[in-house]
Amino acid sequence: MQVMKWSALALAVTAGTTQLAFASAQSESKGFVEDSSFDVLNKNYFLHRDFRNNGAGNGGSADDQNYRQEWAHGITALYESGFTVGTVGFGVDAHGMLGIKLDSGRGTTGTGLLPIDSDGRAEDEYSQAGGAVKVRVSNTTLKYGNLMPTAPVFATGTARLFPGTAEGFQVLSSEIEGLNIDAGHFTSIRDGSLSTNRDGEITLAFAGSIDAQSVDYLGGSYAINENLSVSLYGSELEDIWRQYYSNVNYNIPLSDSQALNFDFNIYRTNDEGSALAGDIDNTTWSLATAYSIGAHKITLAHQQVHGDEPMDYISMDGGNYGDSIFLNNSVQYSDFNAPGEKSWQLRYDLDMATFGVPGLSFMARYITGSDVDGTDADPTGAYAGAYGNDGKEWERDLEVKYVVQEGAAKDLSIRVRHATWRSNNDMSLNYSGGSSALDEVRVITEYPLDIL
What we know:
Blueprint: H1 5-16, E1 37-51, E2 67-80, E3 88-103, E4 125-137, E5 140-147, E6 150-151, E7 154-155, E8 165-173, E9 179-190, E10 202-204, E11 208-212, E12 215-225, E13 228-237, E14 241-253, E15 258-271, E16 281-293, E17 296-306, E18 314-316, E19 342-351, E20 360-372, E21 391-403, E22 413-423, E23 437-450
Antiparallel strand pairs: 1-2, 1-23, 2-3, 3-4, 4-5, 5-8, 6-7, 8-9, 9-12, 10-11, 10-18, 12-13, 13-14, 14-15, 15-16, 16-17, 17-19, 19-20, 20-21, 21-22, 22-23
């Protein structure tokens, strides 16, 4: 699996030509209005972070803020038109977002839920809107505008009140059964919860605000059969890096109530062009094995970073709010992606449907990382001096979630997440504001409504 790059994708395309094209989505189009959908999501979000040893976190002053706490409500309206009838179909997508502050103080801002004004206070409310035009031929769609890509090398964040968006082009194609192609060219990215600026910089989670002019990617996934799938992506972040990603997911049914799953992910990143972040030569991989029996699932994962710099990824507004990291040990707070880091995870999931309570689930996991050494990073690059030579960290996450199964509140979900993170002084403390200890609580309620 090492950097198979485009050869594996070419093989997948060749193999799939014998089962070419199932039904054309465009030929089955009912029309611009007839296939339209309009959804509204109400999202209520409370976030509390306690930096236990006087760290502010995410750019604040470590001298005056030990914890951050905010509560906000967000309303996201998403309209997606159908496509006009014909060989070539045309359509539009549009979204609008309204965020309302429910609780925040000048000394507790900075959770990433609310934008902050010039006086250091959270905005009482904020809004934004965007849209895209789209064209479809057969099973291939071209979109341009404000989009929400989900590729493992470029994915806008979904961890806060609103999803992030990116400005650019995207092509999605599924002409061959089992093969999905995704390509994009983007020139800006915007965090939906922190910025109303459509021209937000394409930055990095750990290198900070290094402004890339554009990002391009191409890749896809191929389902070999119902239990085995592979994916492969390549991207270029202009004058910063070229990054490749691959995944293999294999599920082995053992019985009606038992299964074994293997999930392997690997990234390869090298500096490119002007190398604005410095020299980068990084290979990072993770392997997770999960055993399911009835209501229970136990997962064991191992992750390793090979390189003198962290396995960095595209983010928004200079913070680690992006989702462009598909590694098994990238969890609630830490990504366990420091230079040279080796980490292990043990996770347990419980689905209470088996015990007569459908919609209720529990999760607990523990991750420990060690052998961090960033002392050989490029001395003129963005990661110089960020890590010591014997970094260690651990994180414990607990989660309970309930989804209403029927009635007027059907699909209403309530999720409570708790994280505890600790590290030593050789870890990078940039993303924890100088703190080596953090306790965090998130309470997230979501209520989706299908209007059309």
